[in-house]
């Protein structure tokens, strides 16, 4: 009967929910040990000058390999770390590690590139955030122009505070970028008040660039950025057609699997070598 089915559905739902909660709790607990047990590493994805395909920077992306659970995606653990506040110490580790690695590459003779680091809004709003950024630069010896911070539109919910922090970062010589641009609830009005350097168009717009309407959207976002004197970057480029459409619309910087996935530091070094060789030839 319907009643019995309903009951069965309920218990099925209950056990499903239970295993989701168990996994979440497990991840929450395991995250506590992840930094000290050195389970995190950063992978790097090149940022490319589209017309020449030359590397002009890289984004650091966090990777977590748990001894029993295996690889856990940022899509799964970052929201949990944000919810529990653990993202603050994890984010500090990421910032310091990315600065150290970038400095090491420079010292090993690679041509200097800017590293982009993702920063969660909770981390961005900590009282000692600017201090942490300063420490990351001082401890690594990295010059500020080689660091960029990627934040999301959600910082606009606290616009006054955010503008102050962005101004301080700019005064320190650090670049800032609005990540996943176009997916949040930012009013275009506020965008012109933000002291930022770059907008990064979200992958969802790039995915649909083949359709006329989406192409018009992307073109409009690019024009907006250009008119506000911002650098415009496209994320998630997977095909030559997408790349051509972007260049045609005046967006000359991008990232995506078409060029490279995010790779481990050793592998990134190898592609940097090829990139440097290309540079010598031009
Ligand atoms: P995001 O910052 O927007 O990073 C872009 C994501 O898209 C990365 O996923 C990247 O691997 C992926 N991606 C890049 N190109 C392509 C492409 O051509 N096709 C497809 N399908 N995907 C592409 P990932 O590494 O899984 O990171 C997901 C999100 O997790 C990031 O989105 C970012 O919001 C967050 N995240 C990653 N690392 C950190 C971190 O260190 N701190 C913070 N706060 N968040 C991070
Ligand atoms: Mg990002
Ligand atoms: Mg993004
Ligand atoms: Mg994205």
TrEMBL record:
The keyword Transport does not apply. Keywords: Membrane, Transmembrane, Transmembrane helix. Residues 24-276 form the EAL domain. This is EAL domain-containing protein. The lineage of its organism: Bacteria, Bacillati, Bacillota, Bacilli, Bacillales.
